[in-house]
Write a structure and sequence with these properties.
The complex is a heterodimer of chains A (309) and B (399). Chain A is built from 11 helices and 2 strands; from the N terminus they run ααααββααααααα. Chain A has 309 residues and is mainly α. Chain A has a single domain, classed as ABC transporter involved in vitamin B12 uptake, BtuC (Orthogonal Bundle), CATH 1.10.3470. Chain A has a two-stranded antiparallel ribbon. In chain A, a hairpin with a 2-residue loop joins β1 and β2. In chain A, α1 packs across α6, α2 crosses α9 and α3 runs antiparallel to α8. With 399 residues, chain B is an alpha/beta fold. Chain B folds into 2 domains: 225 residues, Response regulator (Rossmann fold); 148 residues, Rossmann fold, CATH 3.40.50. Chain B has 12 helices and 15 strands. The longest helix of chain B has 23 residues. Chain B starts with a helix and ends with a strand. The chains are: A mainly alpha (309), B alpha/beta (399).
């Protein structure tokens, strides 16, 4: 396949993986656990976007036929959907993580409570809006063409936007983490929560901030993916959740640049799979992860674990 | 200590034995439980990625149930339908089949997907429970066993019709690209038929692209296929992945003909590929235009329930499946009264009754081979026509 086409295909998918994995990373960096409800928050972001642009609920579910009394343009709906997802992520933190943290429970227990929160959210979606597929209308991008040529390749406009927005968000987040007081506070808590607390940083607030940001990123990613493909029911986020986990591990647990790099690498690895073996692209992505972990168990940009003496 | 341990072990074994006995379910001399009506079970994919089919099928079953009970049920006793959601995977179908069988159903309708049928039907076969499949089109479904039948004509009958229709519309077609989901029994069975038909017409596929059921992004496969400059694209995919693929194909500039298989034979593709669904050719086992008393009654009931809409094939087939079971039960009850009858024997006799009958259904007159394969004479090809807004459309039959 042409190099440009591979790059375009791989980077656009990889950017979504990166955005998704970044949500995992933010929470992991401050709490040391993976938030398994992240995929459900991503799914909610897609549904929120669909509803905010005026989409109606189908014939199944408790909200059958429901539609908001207004319809926003896609560019207005997307950030609002991100905010809605952020609120849900904060709720997940309040219900599934904070009680355990207060009791100083083993962080591993939060894996189970977050998994439970994810299952509840997915089933709640199904209860409210049914299990059918929804799609954001193809005209949601206004007068933009469906695709355009680029150096001999053909690029779907939505994929280009997906790549651009994902990279923009990643850049803004990186700058914010390095250049703002709260960003540095978040990093300090990620380094050592107790020391950060002694230095006057409110670690509880930082944890909430991490969940809120993680939820916002997941919500925006969900809305963008929902625009690119359809929302294939309440379980829409599961595949991305699994891929996001692989990206998280590949990039290095807790590493922001690692999440981005891992996402892009997995996306490109999948795009490089020859056409005759295209059904095996998932296997290639996970196989690549396996090989990297064999030679670098902490992932590409993960920090080595401190040695206890 | 030792007697205590023995006691606990004995209690445990007794509990296990009781559990196993409970799981056995059928009980050799168990009578049919007719409280509330004559029990028939249905197992449909109401959640997961195949829910788009299950929702269509559920309407068909509900209409058939209403119709049957409106004309006296099973010789004066109401027909009772127990519906179970199988999800869209094999474990879900296995669990739902087992539950329905243990609950004493006389026959089962389902499951939705061929992939599920290959897993769940053997359970019904082992337990001696008749199965009438409303939508399994893969090769080899009735061959699973003597208790398995279907009202959905297999791919080898319908799939070639859409290729022929494409060639009739554009006789100069030369370069066909094929897509199919390699992890789905229906898709792999149907693509074999499609590819054989293409080769038979001198249209060797220029590329065969494999996908997976849960794929949503097909840019890699589409880019590879489009480089071969196809003028015909043939899809054996389910509704959600197929709808997404069509949308991405069109967005990436493909303007040629598209033939889709039975998996996309549902109006539920409209919201997925939207305006890009327009023009897709799909073989049909059902025509709303069939002017028979059975189809007219079905059409009337569907339109009354759905605000004048036209029923899709899956709804008509599900309606037919329950109609077949109900009519066979009526005949069986006259010959071998169900009240007090032994469940195991009644299930066996019901299967024989299903296979021996002839049925005037919305699909036309149908019968079964001794193996349980449907014998149906009328098939069609439809072209999807979307409304200008791309929100809704219709399957317009080609003349």
């Amino acid at each position: 396949m042409d190099l440009i086409q591979i790059l375009v295909n791989g980077l656009s998918v990889g950017a979504v993986y990166g955005l998704f994995a970044l949500g995992y990373t933010l929470v992991f960096s401050v709490l040391g656990v993976i938030n398994f409800a992240h995929g459900a928050v991503f799914t909610l972001g897609a549904y929120f976007t669909y509803l905010l642009i005026g989409g109606a609920v189908g014939a199944n579910g408790l909200l059958a036929g429901f539609a908001l009394p207004f319809a926003l343009p896609f560019w207005g709906a997307l950030p609002l959907a991100g905010l809605g997802a952020a609120l849900v992520a904060l709720l997940v933190e309040r219900v599934a993580f904070r009680p355990l943290r207060r009791r100083r429970a083993d962080p591993l227990l939060a894996l189970i409570t977050s998994l439970g929160a994810g299952v509840i959210l997915v089933n709640l979606i199904q209860l409210l809006v049914g299990a059918e597929s929804y799609a954001i209308p193809t005209g949601a991008l206004g007068g933009l063409p469906a695709s355009f040529p680029l150096l001999g390749a053909r690029v779907r406009t939505v994929q280009a936007l997906l790549l651009a927005i994902s990279l923009l968000l990643l850049a803004v987040l990186s700058l914010w983490l390095e250049g703002s007081r709260n960003g540095r506070g978040l990093q300090a808590v990620a380094e050592d929560a107790e020391t950060a607390q002694l230095l006057g940083i409110d670690s509880t607030a930082m944890v909430r901030l991490a969940f809120g940001l993680s939820g916002f990123l997941a919500g925006v990613a969900g809305g963008l993916v929902g625009l690119s493909v359809s929302i294939a029911g309440p379980y829409f986020g599961i595949g991305y959740g699994l891929k996001g986990l692989a990206v998280l591990v590949l990039g290095g647990l807790g590493s922001v640049p690692g999440a981005v790099l891992g996402g892009l690498i997995v996306g490109l690895a999948e795009a490089c799979v020859p056409a005759e073996a295209s059904g095996w692209k998932d296997a290639v992505g996970y196989g690549f992860l396996f090989l990297v972990l064999l030679v670098r168990p902490r992932g590409l940009l993960g920090r080595p674990l401190p040695t206890k003496v | 200590m030792i007697p205590g341990r023995l006691h606990r072990a004995g209690t445990g074994l007794l509990a296990l034995a009781l559990l196993l006995a409970g799981c056995g379910g059928d009980g050799g001399k168990q009578p049919i439980n007719l409280a509330g009506g004559v029990p028939v079970g249905a197992v449909l994919a109401l959640t997961g990625n195949a829910n788009v089919y299950g929702q269509d099928q559920k309407i068909g079953l509900e209409l058939a149930l209403k119709q049957r009970n409106g004309v006296g049920g099973i010789n004066g006793r109401p027909l009772k339908l127990a519906l179970e959601d199988s999800g869209s995977d094999e474990p879900g179908a296995n669990a739902a089949f087992t539950l329905q069988i243990n609950n004493g159903m006389l026959a089962l309708i389902g499951p939705t997907l061929s992939q599920q049928a290959f897993s769940a039907d053997p359970i019904a076969q082992r337990r001696g429970v008749p199965v009438v499949a409303p939508s399994n089109t893969a090769t080899g479904i009735p061959e699973i066993g003597s208790f398995i039948s279907r009202v959905s004509a297999q791919s080898s009958v319908i799939a070639p019709l859409a290729i022929e229709a494409a060639l009739k519309l554009q006789p100069g077609l030369k370069r066909a690209a094929v897509f199919y989901a390699q992890d789905d029994a229906y898709s792999t069975a149907e693509t074999t038929i499609f590819q054989q038909t293409l080769k038979g017409r001198g249209l060797d596929p220029v590329t065969v692209q494999r996908t997976q059921l849960n794929d949503q992004d097909f840019q890699n496969q589409i880019s590879a296929a489009l480089r071969e400059q196809p003028d015909l694209i043939v899809l054996s995919l389910q509704a959600v992945d197929g709808g997404n693929l069509i949308r991405q194909l069109r967005e990436l500039g493909y303007r040629g003909l598209i033939v889709a298989g039975n998996g996309m034979n549902t109006p539920n593709i409209y919201p997925i590929c939207q305006k890009y669904c327009d023009g897709v050719l799909i073989g049909q086992a059902y025509s709303p235009e069939l002017d028979t008393p059975a189809n007219n009654a079905f059409l009337k009931a569907f339109r009354a329930a759905k605000g004048g809409a036209t029923p899709p094939q899956l709804t008509a087939q599900a309606y037919t499946a329950l109609q077949v079971v109900a009519e066979a039960l009526v005949r069986l009850d006259k010959r071998l009264p169900l009240a007090g009858a032994n469940l195991v024997e009644a299930r066996k006799a019901l299967m024989a009754e299903i296979l021996s009958g002839s049925y005037a259904t919305p699909l036309g007159e149908i019968r079964f081979t001794p193996e349980g394969e449907v014998i149906q004479s009328q098939f069609y090809v439809a072209r999807v026509r979307m409304d200008p807004g791309g929100r809704s459309g219709r399957f317009a039959l080609l003349k």
